[in-house]
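re: ur question from earlier - yeah i can do the single chain one, its not a big deal. heres the input i used so u can compare w yours
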Amino acid sequence: MGAMRSIKTKRRSRDLDQIHADLRSPKHLAEHTDAKPAEDLPGLGRWYCVECAKWFESENSMEQHTRGKPHKRRLRALKEEPYNQKEADAAIGLRTDNGSRKPSKLTAIEEQAATLNLDMDSDG
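and the output i got, formated as tokens:
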């Protein structure tokens, strides 16, 4: 079981939100690509697919990759914007607007009815 877990983490690729950040900011991409020395990378770090976050041995293998199904699936997934924290909070019902809420007319009528009922009970 332990060997299987190490294989899964070894082949782990970058998440979609990290790739979105790479596409938006060249600085973010440079931090990722410069993290490893070129001698340790396939093809001495010359061929890199930004969308899939993969290194390739040769230009030919990168061209084959860009024509392949996994690359096209990744492009389709990257067309959607990643969720942000504000959207996640809204999905679970947390409000970000801390302004005062106006009472609805229904609650005002219910309050009046409740006070009238109390007044009638105290008279009787």
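The longest strand covers residues 47-49. not sure if urs matches, ping me
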